[in-house]
Write a structure and sequence with these properties.
Elements (H helix, E strand, L loop, with lengths): L2 E3 L6 E3 L2 E3 L12 H13 L4 E3 L8 H10 L8 E6 L1 E5 L16 E5 L3 H15 L6 E5 L5 H17 L5 E5 L3 H10 L4 E5 L13 H8 L2 E5 L28 E6 L3 E3 L15 E3 L8 E6 L4 E5 L3 E5 L1
Helix pairs in contact: 1-2, 3-4, 5-6
Length: about 300
C-alpha cells in the first residue's frame, strides 16, 4: 500500500488507516474476537496506520488495538491516539456508556491542561501495553478550544520537543476552528472527520487552502459519515444528497445532468415496497428523479432540469 510522510515530520502513514471508533462499540457491541479479526484483516490488507482514542469505548478500543499491535514489529506500523478526555473509574451499576455500547465502567472528564495531557498519554500507553505512540492529537476540542489552544497545544509541542511523539495535531469536526489552529500553531497533521467526503466537502472553502499554505497534512476521517454513506441493506434511509460543489460562487442556471446520482431515496414506497419517484435530490435542481432498483438497492435517476451551477 502507498505510504505518505506527514508534512515536516519523520512519521509515515499508509494511504488507508484503521480508525478505532467502531472497535470501541460505536452504535453496536463488538466482542474481542470480532475486534481482533478486524485488526488482522486490516493488517493483511496492508494497512499500517492505526488510530484510536480513550474516548472510543472508554478505553476498549485502545486495549484492543494494543493487544493486536503488541504482536507486530513496532517499527512496522504507525499509531496515533488522542488527549483531552481523562477516564475516571466508576461503578457501572448496570448502565451502558452514553456514547458506546460498553458497560459504563468509567466517566469522561475534559482536561487539556499540561498535566492532563501527560496523564492521558501515560494512561493510554498503559491500556495499550506499548511504549510509545507516533502521533498525538487534541480531540474534539470544539467546546474547549481556548484551553486546547493555549494549554493543550503547548503540552503537545513539549512532548514533541522531548522526542516522546513524532508528530502532533488535532482532530475535530469544526473546520473553522481547525483553520484557526493551524494558523496559530505549528502542528504537522490534523484529522478531519466528515468534512471532506462524498457527502460533505465544506473543508474546501478555507481549511484545505490553509493546509496547503501552512504545509500541514490532513487525515480524512469518518469518510462514510459513521455509516451515513454506507448501504442500508434492510430499510429505507433518509435521502442524503451528494453536492457537485467544487468551489465558491454561484454561476448561471444550466441544465442539470441526467443520469444516476449518488443518493438514497426516502420517497413513499409503491405497492412493491419500492419508492417510484421523488424530487431530484439536489436542492438547486428543478427536475424529478425516478427511483430504480429493488427495496434494498436503489438509485435516483434524474430526468434533467435546471439548477444554479457552482463553478
Amino acid at each position: 500500500m502507498k505510504v505518505n510522510r506527514l508534512q515536516r515530520s519523520m512519521v509515515d502513514v499508509t494511504e488507508l488507516g484503521l480508525g478505532g471508533g467502531p472497535l470501541g462499540g460505536l452504535f453496536q457491541p463488538v466482542d474481542d474476537e470480532a475486534a481482533a479479526a478486524t485488526l488482522a484483516a486490516a493488517w493483511d490488507s496492508g494497512i499500517r496506520y492505526f488510530d484510536t482514542a480513550p474516548h472510543y469505548g472508554i478505553g476498549h478500543s485502545e486495549r484492543r488495538f494494543g493487544e493486536f499491535l503488541r504482536e507486530q514489529p513496532r517499527d512496522a506500523f504507525t499509531l496515533s491516539t488522542k488527549v483531552g478526555r481523562l477516564l475516571v473509574e466508576q461503578d457501572p451499576a448496570g448502565r451502558t456508556d452514553e456514547a458506546f455500547q460498553v458497560p459504563a465502567t468509567h466517566r469522561r472528564v475534559w482536561d487539556f491542561s499540561r498535566d492532563g495531557v501527560r496523564r492521558s498519554l501515560e494512561e493510554s500507553l498503559f491500556r495499550m501495553g506499548l511504549e510509545r505512540v507516533d502521533v498525538l492529537y487534541l480531540h474534539d476540542a470544539g467546546d474547549h478550544f481556548d484551553a486546547a489552544l493555549h494549554d493543550g497545544y503547548p503540552a503537545l509541542a513539549e512532548l514533541r520537543a522531548e522526542g516522546v511523539v513524532g508528530a502532533i495535531g488535532a482532530g475535530m469536526e469544526n473546520a473553522a476552528l481547525l483553520t484557526t489552529l493551524i494558523q496559530e500553531t505549528d502542528v504537522e497533521v490534523l484529522m478531519l472527520p466528515g468534512r471532506y467526503t462524498l457527502l460533505d466537502q465544506s473543508a474546501l472553502d478555507e481549511l484545505l487552502p490553509a493546509y496547503q499554505e501552512r504545509r500541514v497534512s490532513v487525515i480524512a476521517a469518518a469518510v462514510f459519515h459513521s455509516g451515513g454513506a454506507s448501504p442500508a441493506p434492510t430499510r429505507h434511509r433518509r435521502h442524503v444528497w451528494l453536492s457537485d460543489r467544487v468551489g465558491g460562487g454561484a454561476g448561471p442556471s444550466k441544465p442539470h445532468r441526467r443520469g444516476v446520482h449518488r443518493a438514497r431515496c426516502d420517497a413513499a414506497p409503491g405497492s412493491d415496497g419500492v419508492p417510484t419517484d421523488a424530487p431530484c435530490g439536489d436542492r438547486r435542481c428543478s427536475g424529478n428523479a425516478l427511483c430504480r432498483g429493488g427495496p434494498t438497492e436503489r438509485q435516483l435517476v434524474c430526468d434533467g432540469g435546471t439548477h444554479s451551477a457552482v463553478e
